[in-house]
Amino acid sequence: xxxxxxxxxxxxxxxxxxxxxxxRGINHMAFPTFDPVGxxxxxxxxxxxxxxxxxxxxxxxxxxxxxxxxxxxxxxxADCLAFFYYFGQEPYRDENRPxxxxxxxxxxxxxxxxxxxxxxxxxxxxxxxxxxxRVMHETVESIxxxxxxxxxxxxxxxxxxxxxxxxxxxxxxxxxxxxxxATDGEPxxxxxxxxxxxxxxxxxxxxxxxx
Amino acid sequence: MTTLYFLDAAEFTGVSAVAAAQPGVRVERLRGxxxxxxxxxxxxxxxxxxxxxxxxxxxxxxxxxxxxxxYDKDALKVEPDP
Lengths: 211, 82
Known about the structure:
The structure holds two protein chains of two kinds. By secondary structure, chain A is of the alpha/beta class. Chain A has helices spanning 36-46, 99-104, 114-126, 164-181, 189-203, and strands spanning 28-32, 51-57, 68-74, 80-86, 106-110, 133-136, 140-146, 152-158.
């Protein structure tokens, strides 16, 4: 559940090649909500994220469409976390979602400092909510809390900046995964480790040790 | 001959340092990795590394010519391919 994007990114650092594309963060992520009271209370009042845009919309388009309110919370960098509340829509929840998939899908908000992270932990606990986990990952320290929609919200602060070595490793790992998946054998972590070693060795002649 | 690869990053230095301290191993730095090469089995005691669980289980980046036979809360053990 580490977020590789949740890093300090000073303008001069470009380990992953941000200059090679034109995307500049998340414009917004949107989720449906059946609990706008809880959702506004959680994001606006508990986390302190201001509402910066709302739309009230008369149903149009596909026949299943309903009148709705679309509301946007500022999450920094001019990025937003957004929700749809559909009038008259019966609540739906997938009770059969496997726990692994449930944990895998989450939203990670970035804060810069330990004081920021502690501040959010206090706000959450002062509101009587439970912090599910606090974890020191490889490159971020994170707290986890469920929002009123049962979305897992991670708040992460960087432990170090990403480096060129991280970016090289990411490329090698991804290629190894693609190679393993392209073979007839069962894809396993053991196979990935072995393929990564082959790829690294192929790029680095034996005995040429240079950082 | 087995080679273990660890990303040359601060969070993994405890692991690679314990691996490097084993007798008879060769330690190199290659393009962002610390590599530990041995003719025999390699065993790293987790508690000796001092790293937290969340880092321990992601420390191993790659394995050349070897097989991971143990990777749990106690140790990482890799044996050479026959």
